[in-house]
Design goal:
Blueprint (H helix, E strand, L loop, with lengths): L1 H17 L5 H15 L5 E2 L4 E2 L13 H6 L3 H14 L1 H10 L4 H13 L1 H8 L8 H14 L2 H14 L3 H14 L4 H27 L16 H10 L2 H7 L2 H11 L18 H9 L17 H13 L8 H15 L16 H9 L7 E3 L13 E3 L15 E5 L9 H12 L4 E7 L2 E6 L5
Parallel strand pairs: 3-4, 3-5
Antiparallel strand pairs: 1-2, 5-7, 6-7
Length: about 450
């Protein structure tokens, strides 16, 4: 079941990328830095303008460079993501069995995990290192319940390395293990490690490598301009957030999260959700609407603990449904309603008319020179130290001379959403003495710096 699911997810994300529907944020960013790591170069993202460790302090990405040593390709990232997301079904099965569920119930719970719409949807949305933490979050809970402290520590360390914000989830998980599960050693380790790494990552590592505050701080500007100021205002000025917590927007978000699993949630078995409180709070309080859907990665840290709550409910003989067929039918219905599989015959085919021309233009880029291109083409050209994507520039025009290649699709300018701007850029390049147009077909243009042409 896991193998088939992983192949389906990998096939879907690979097809999306092949159709030029992936983008800079975030497949392009991670493909570039992992490629640079594999080449022994400093992993400085030319899209972000700073070192990889300044972006979420995600040191768990470094081992992925070993895969790029075999053959550099963004499809490695998509494969890792598909495997990680589906692999969560394995500890789910073990946790269900450990909780006393029958074999058939454990398999059903694993199937419910795999059919949760967020798994499929996040797999389509670029690449994010926190996907690697999902099966490990379930794994460390299993290790704690089995008294495997060593494995618990190793798993916790890896989770912390996937994304700095996960340290809050780890700390909350530690509190839950300590107070509700009575796993004092593992609980204390997670609580201390989570708080410590959060402070180190947010106050030392990220500012050191990015020369700025944690990037997500801007989404909570009404609470303060820094991580510590936001934390202080949450404690001292709770009235600032009450309106967001008790709102229709929050109610709709909670309904999305719970709907696929509502049949298996019982009030007295909800204590695992204590661990999900930090991620839930970050999403509810954010100005970014994308943090409150089942499409983007922000709700991933919540899913393992929803599954644990379902397992606890089934173990206690609670829940609306107990029949295996009914449970699977509900999970399938939720997937059909909330899964984004329809993108493959709608939005993902919007630029199919320029697909062949874009591939041909990319094939003519032979060197590792600097490239300026569009948001959707950029992830296909990130195996180089410097690549940027066009956007709707409101300031001074870009310095074209710093690029060896400029590849534009004026029919589908994607990131700019502004064909007039894209056409204006092409006309500027046609009249630029530094560049020569070497390819033109179906409104796809490739310009090469004259200094590169022998």
């Amino acid at each position: 079941m896991i193998s088939i699911s992983a192949l389906i997810l990998f096939g879907c994300s690979s097809l999306r990328h092949t159709l030029f529907q992936s983008g800079v944020f975030d497949l392009g960013i991670y493909d570039q830095v992992v490629y640079l790591m594999s080449q022994g170069q400093s992993p400085i993202s030319s899209f972000l303008g700073f070192h990889h460790m300044g972006n979420h302090a995600a040191w768990a990405v470094y081992p992925l460079a070993l895969l790029y040593k075999i053959y550099p390709s963004p499809y490695w990232l998509l494969a890792v993501q598909a495997v990680a997301l589906t692999l969560g079904a394995l500890p789910t099965w073990y946790l269900a069995r450990q909780a006393g569920l029958k074999e058939s119930q454990a398999v059903t719970t694993s199937a419910v995990y795999l059919l949760y719409p967020l798994i499929f949807n996040v797999n389509l949305f670029e690449f994010h290192p926190e996907v690697m933490a999902v099966p490990v979050l379930l794994g460390v809970v299993l290790a704690a319940r089995l008294g495997k402290v060593g494995w618990f520590c190793l798993g916790t360390i890896f989770i912390l390395g996937c994304k700095a914000a996960l340290s809050l989830t780890v700390a909350a998980m530690g509190f839950w293990l300590l107070v509700f599960e009575k796993r004092r050693v593992c609980g204390a380790i997670a609580l201390i490690a989570g708080i410590t790494w959060f402070l180190i990552a947010s106050q030392v590592i990220i500012p050191l490598f990015s020369n700025d505050e944690v990037a997500a701080v801007s989404r909570y500007s009404y609470l303060g301009d820094s991580v510590l100021e936001i934390a202080k205002n949450l404690l001292l000025k709770p009235q600032l957030v009450l309106g967001r917590i008790f709102s229709l927007d929050t109610l709709g978000y909670l309904a999305l999260l719970i709907a696929p699993l509502i049949w298996g949630l019982a009030p007295r078995q909800l204590t695992p959700l204590v661990s999900a409180i930090p991620a839930l709070a970050l999403n509810i309080l954010s100005d970014k609407q994308a943090q409150r859907d089942l499409i983007h990665q922000y709700s991933l840290p919540i899913l393992p603990f929803l599954i644990l709550a379902v397992i606890a409910s089934l173990s206690a003989g609670k829940g609306w449904f107990k029949n295996r067929r009914t449970i699977i039918l509900w999970a399938l219905l939720a997937f059909m309603v909330l899964g984004k599989y329809s993108y493959f015959w709608s939005r993902y085919l919007r630029s199919i008319d320029t697909w062949q021309a874009t591939r041909q233009a990319i094939a003519q880029i032979q060197t590792k020179g600097a490239v300026l291109t569009t948001h959707s083409i950029a992830p296909h050209l990130t195996h180089r130290p410097f690549v940027q994507f066009t956007d709707d520039l409101s300031g001074s025009p870009p310095d074209f001379k710093q690029f060896e290649y400029i590849l534009l699709n004026t029919r589908h300018p994607d990131g700019t959403r502004n064909p007039e701007f894209a056409n204006k850029l092409v006309n500027q390049l046609k009249n630029n003495d530094y560049f020569k147009m070497t390819y033109q077909h179906d409104d796809v243009y490739l310009f090469v710096n004259n200094s590169s042409i022998k």
